[in-house]
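Case study 2.
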Amino acid sequence: MSSATQLHSCTRQKNEMFRFGEKMKVAYLDVRNGCAGDMIVAALASCCEMSALRRELSKVKFPSSYTIRLHSVMRSSASSHAFRAYRFIVTPERHEDCASYSAIRTVFSNSALDLNIKKDILRIYEILAAAESRAHGEIKRNLHFHEVGQTDALVEIASAVILLRLLGVEKLYASPVGLANAAPATLEMSTGMPVLFRDAQIEITTPTGMAILKGLVDNFGAAPLMRVLGCGFGAGASEKILPNVLSFVYGEASAKTETVCVVETSVDDINPVLFETII
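Prediction:
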């Protein structure tokens, strides 16, 4: 390039939305006050038929027999207005010893669940295993879970994935996650996620809840524009903090959207043979 030749470039990035005609099922979880696996499942299950969930769960041979039930509770918000929420309770027939990561993978890999459901469940347990491994300095293949390896936790994680599939949710959004007195594994999983640190004296987000969010949520932030089809509220066991509740809303997006990055450059006063190299 001669000294008389000048290259003027004006490069900018912008997001453009390309809209398509078909509708898409989307959902939003408000977890600013924290979450646990049973809370997520309770909110989702209140929007579904429990018989459909039981039918899908029967395709898995869990370590222990169990029963599940969904029942309503009254909770109060910060403004003292009472509202109806739900609790999801799993009762195993026995509390077996903690399960190894490899044993849990076998339980779900050998199940008759849909392949995509299996993949989502195994991804959640992979996230849990990686976090526990980093937090406690153990090799993943030697890892034994405690609470998250019990039948109730396995049922909760499987139920979260199954219920989203039953509702037809294609894209899941969530608010930033509320944290207080978080376990080491929960903090490990928070890497790359937006969180809100709350002034509470008890744990408000459990490792199971965090793993479900990290494994299933597509975008964290504001709720998407949608035509609401249903909603549910999932309550935790403790009533020491108000409100110990998360909300779930699902509906149809007005159109499928895709965000693309467009890079534009203006070039002049340059030998055309150099264009290919520059591009």
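Residues 7 and 268 are 6 Å apart (CA to CA).
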